[in-house]
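ARCHIVE CARD
Drawer: 12
Card no.: 0347
Subject: one protein chain, sequence and derived structure
Cross-reference: see card 0346
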Amino acid sequence: MKSVLAKREVSYVNKFQLWLDSEIDWPHTQAVVDCIGDMMKLGPQECLVEMGSCEKLNLNTGFFFTCASLIHLRLLLSTYIDDSFVAIEPNSVNLPCLKTLNLVGVTLSDDSLKRFLLGCPVLEDLVLDDCIIHIIEICSKTLKKLVVHKCYDVIRFQISTPNLLYLDMCVVPMVTFLGTRDMLLLNMLLLVHASIYIPYWHDEDIYITRGPKLIHSLSNVESLQLEFDYIQGMIPKKDFLDFPVFNNLKRLKLPHWRFYCFDLAPYFLLHSPKLQELTLTNQYAHVTEFVDEEITQEGLGDALVQREFLKTVRIVGFKNGNGFVDQLINKLLVHVKIVGEIEIVRRDPCP
């Protein structure tokens, strides 16, 4: 690599991409690290590194996280050592131009994330995917997009991002947020799109106290996707007045469809004056018949004000003519006088 670089007439590169899909032996680890270091000296604007397993790997040296020219950085590691991913713990971070940071398959502490947020003054896009994150708070005035997928060891989690436009925390049930007991969303006034998975807290009181606050924190969005493991704490205990008004909401999707989740849909129908599209999705696409299931509406009362009009209702994951779908439509029409279009989409069964 050094000989190749020495023959170059141009002393810089625009993009550096390293992909190693096989296991890296220990004797070659330093050569890989040196290669990355040499490339960082050429001032790339974009760096994409994807590596397979390695006995020992240290990416916390200065070249990676002090490259002043970097605008986009993506690290994807599949190394798993001593029951943990490779830890990203740089002593210092100085990435003045970095706008996009994508970390996959790493361990990240709260202190390390704070270094990144302080050392990346113009960071707009942060993705944490399949990571072990010991993070308590994500606090940033520059972030516009935040994605957190399949992350583990999250106990308390607070997000304060006043300029955030896009939030995606829709993750795999039963795996992600294992043990999560507290998740707060603060200062989401500019949020346009949110995709949120609310995990199951073993203590139902957590749902009662935190669930409604999560719903209220999302009340400014235009597009909303919600997924629950437990619905009762999301429903107001008294009446509809406890539920926030979603003045900007145009598209609502309730995936990972469970039958009791319909208890929440009327609250959105009657508190979202601009709502145009409602999508109800059965993510277990191989299941296409639930004729014996009943949809309940406990606590909603009998005399409810109907919504005048809803442009589109989309039901995904069931075949047309299914008994459960008929029940679903009938219950929906209790709360909406006129539905412009009802689409029933049957997805291909899961393999």
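Annotation on reverse: Residues 1-100+110-128 form one domain. The helical segments are 2-6, 26-40, 62-65, 110-119, 204-217, 265-271, 323-333.
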